[in-house]
Write a structure and sequence with these properties.
mainly alpha; Growth Hormone, Chain: A; 19 helices; membrane; cell membrane; transport; transmembrane; MFS_trans_sf
């Protein structure tokens, strides 16, 4: 954020603000993953095919990507407390609406509204923490608000499965109501309403063009992955997305105050992290969509059993955090991204070997090892992203990274549906009834995309980001 705030931070309340924002982050991250295990039951409620419900995930994630860029401008203009509490209210109310819906169209609309709340809630919440936390406590505060992004995916699948199996999928969304109401009261009382004294003009053209491009491209992928894909409509939306994307790039490069600052792409390490890193995120993000469906539709498990197995992937994510720093220091960014990236893709390919007859021990082992590789690759990409970004460009680079990050997660879900559709074609049927073999083929396609992702890293300098990783200073 540029400029100065008009009110002094409430330093005495900083710990409570950090906890409050961490809880809001947890809600936002949880709702991105928790419905994966509930898709078959939700599909029965809406009388649609389970694969078609991928739009319930992608619409939420896409809306996050579209609206994140304007969150900083909104906080500067209307105040941190006003925007954060407003976003939390929208998120909570739309969660209740999600639980009350009885059709795919209205559910998707409610998820879009929920995504708007989440898009404003998370970046503005982080800003509230930065402005209220003393500098010597900043590292601890950032560490606390980062953990929900790791813990929520761990809890999401089994919690969603437990609720779906023993109650109803609707309670997945109703649970946000008490949490949201408590958060609203605390946020209004403890978060200061800081504003930026230097008001930036709102880049309406940039917001509309970039939002249209993201929406059209994502919707084209969503249509392509459907069982009864309307090809003419999908191609039309793809064309709209390409034209809008080209127009957005032209505008953003020339306007004085772009809604998304693209200048960080001139930095090699940032460009690699956003290029190959985004492709990696797409491949990995297909897994939380495909795995629960394979376990329930392909293997005949219930939602709770499926969620418990999926937990192994995220357990591997957390376990790798213990050794990530020594590995990065010893081998450096380029070696880790190349070798571990290839290994991560191999673990995705290994999922294609799983069948209903595979012993649970081996299923858990494959998923756990895949989680280890995924975690290391994510951490390396996320750290490399800002390794060489100068401080004046940090805010713009952070917004750009957050936008692309949310976009690629949504594209990953859509790509998972497309891969499943392609596998069904290969096996000679239309996808109305997916088989275990279709899921096996889908994982091979997803693994192939994972291998493509590491190509961007080959040209990276061996010493790239060494001042951040510490590579070369301790025997590396």
């Amino acid at each position: 954020m540029s400029g100065s705030s008009s009110a002094a931070p409430r330093s005495g309340d900083s710990s409570l603000i950090v906890t409050l924002v961490a809880a809001a982050f947890f809600m936002e991250n949880l709702d991105g993953t928790i419905i994966a295990t509930a898709l078959p039951q939700m599909a029965r409620s809406f009388n649609v095919h389970p694969v078609d419900l991928s739009i319930g995930i992608t619409s939420y994630l896409l809306t996050l990507a579209v609206f994140i860029p304007i969150s900083g401008w909104a906080a500067d203009r209307f105040g941190v407390r006003n925007v954060f509490t407003g976003a939390l209210a929208v998120f909570t109310a739309s969660s209740v609406l999600c639980g009350m819906t009885n059709g795919l169209v209205e559910f998707t609309a409610a998820r879009v509204l929920q995504g708007i709340g989440g898009a404003m809630m998370v970046p503005v919440g982080r800003l509230a923490v930065l402005r209220s936390t003393p500098r010597d406590s900043l590292m601890r505060a950032i560490s606390i608000i980062t953990w929900p992004g790791l813990v929520a995916p761990v809890i999401g699948p089994p919690l969603g499965g437990l609720i779906t199996t023993y109650s109803s999928w609707r309670w997945i969304f109703y649970l946000n109501l008490p949490l949201g109401l408590i958060g609203l009261v605390l946020a209004w009382h403890f978060i200061g309403n800081d504003r930026d004294t230097q008001k930036r003009p709102f880049d309406a053209a940039g917001f509309v063009l970039s939002g249209l491009a993201c929406t059209a491209l994502m919707y084209a992928m969503e249509l392509t992955g459907r069982v009864d894909a309307p090809w003419k409509q999908a191609l039309a939306w793809l064309g709209v997305g390409v034209v809008a994307g080209a127009a957005a790039l032209f505008h953003l490069r020339r306007t004085a105050h772009p809604v998304v600052d693209l200048s960080a792409f001139r930095i090699r390490t940032f460009a690699v992290a956003m290029g190959g890193g985004s492709i990696f995120r797409i491949s990995i993000s297909a897994v939380p969509f495909l795995l629960p469906l394979m376990f329930q539709v392909g293997f005949g498990m219930n939602a709770f059993q499926s969620g418990l197995l999926t937990l192994a992937v995220f357990a591997g994510n957390l376990m790798m955090k213990l050794v990530t720093t020594p590995i990065m220091r010893r081998y450096g960014f380029r070696s880790v991204l190349l070798v571990n990236g290839a290994f991560a893709a191999l673990t995705l390919a290994a999922m294609s070997l799983l069948t209903p007859a595979t012993p649970t021990f081996w299923i858990v082992t494959v998923l756990f090892v895949s989680g280890l590789a995924r975690s290391l690759q994510f951490t390396a990409i996320n750290t490399l992203t800002f390794a060489d970004v100068p401080r004046p460009q940090m805010s713009g680079a952070s917004t750009l990274s957050s936008t692309l990050g949310q976009m690629t997660v949504g594209m990953g879900v859509a790509f998972g549906a497309i891969a499943l559709r392609m596998a069904a074609w290969f096996h000679g049927h239309d996808g109305q009834t997916v088989t275990t073999a279709d899921f096996n083929g889908a994982f091979l396609i997803v693994a192939g995309l994972g291998f493509v992702a590491i190509a961007d890293v080959i040209g990276l300098d061996r010493r790239a980001g060494a001042h951040v990783s510490g590579h070369g200073r301790s025997g590396g």
